[in-house]
Amino acid sequence: MQTIALTTVVLPVGESLNEDFGESHNVDLAARLYLLYKDTDIDFLFLSGNSRSERFGLDFSKNLATNFEIHGELAYIHDQRQITLQEDGSLLRKEVSTLSSLLGIRYLSKNDITSIIEYYHNGGGYSEEELGNFYQFIADGNDQFISAGLEDQLNTARELSLQGYGRPQPGRDYLYARITQKDSFDILYFTPGITAIYNLSDESISLSPEVVYSGVTNWEFRLRFTYLGGKSFTEFGEKLNSSKLELRVRFFF
User: Mean pLDDT per segment of 10 residues, for the chain of length 253 residues?
Assistant: First the structure.
């Protein structure tokens, strides 16, 4: 054992203090224990309180070689509240204990190409069928609005989106990959790359090539194109846009 570090947190939640964290009039306690054991970074984490349900986690990172690293995460959430839309349009409210995990590798090649590949299992996510029911519910609500001007079903869908269906990566299983090359084409501070997120259940995908230039002091320029592909009633196939072009400029001071 080379290093031990303990970080503790007291997080009160009130009407005007951390009100977006969870239920008000509660005090939450959290801690992180960091260990450096035989060149392996390890974290143990926990959160306890009435604003959110108890949760525990651990993660690790280890260099198997100077240019090859493996990392993983594990998270357990006790009695997490979940709302699931049933096929008949009814809502099922329940509390479930979930276990999520991530396992990944990072590899640096001789020509400065960094490759990251990760598998992510979201234990609290929705199955392909459950996400399909939600997208069908939206389509039916849109038909009602067009034909009769009724907005009740669309309003319900909006609330469901805020309560879980609309969060990033709401599905169960994903494959993530990112490849970048530093100083590509012998241009200093020029880094092209590509990022892919693939939903293993419904086979939809988000693909984002980009270029980043940071050769001007305190400035960063990022040009990114995102393509979203998938069939109807799949996660990326049902996004509001099928593609997106972004130019981001950041100034550091």
Answer: 94 83 85 95 93 92 95 93 82 88 96 96 91 90 85 86 87 96 91 96 95 95 96 90 94 94
pTM beyond 0.70, yes or no: yes
What is the rounded distance in angstroms from the CA atom of residue 183 to the CA atom of residue 50?
Answer: 49
Say whether both 129 and 119 belong to one domain. Answer: yes
Q: Which two tokens stand for residue 14?
A: 């009130």
- Same domain for 45 and 80, yes or no, is no
Considering the domain architecture, whether residues 64 and 133 belong to the same structural domain is answered as: yes
CATH of the domain at 118: 2.40.160
Task: Looking at the structure, tell me whether residues 21 and 64 fall in a common domain.
Answer: no
Tell me, yes or no, whether 46 and 65 share the same domain: no
Q: What is the Cα–Cα distance from 94 to 90, expressed in whole angstroms?
A: 13
Q: 46 and 88: one domain? A: no
Q: Within this chain, do residues 45 and 153 fall inside the same structural domain, yes or no?
A: no
With 0-12 / 13-18 / 19 or more C-beta atoms within 10 angstroms meaning exposed / middle / buried, residue 156 is: middle
- Which structure tokens are listed for 39? 């060149």
CA distances from 173 to 136, 164, 209 (A): 21, 16, 22
9-15 long-range contacts (CB < 8 A, ≥24 apart) are 11/49, 11/51, 13/49, 13/51
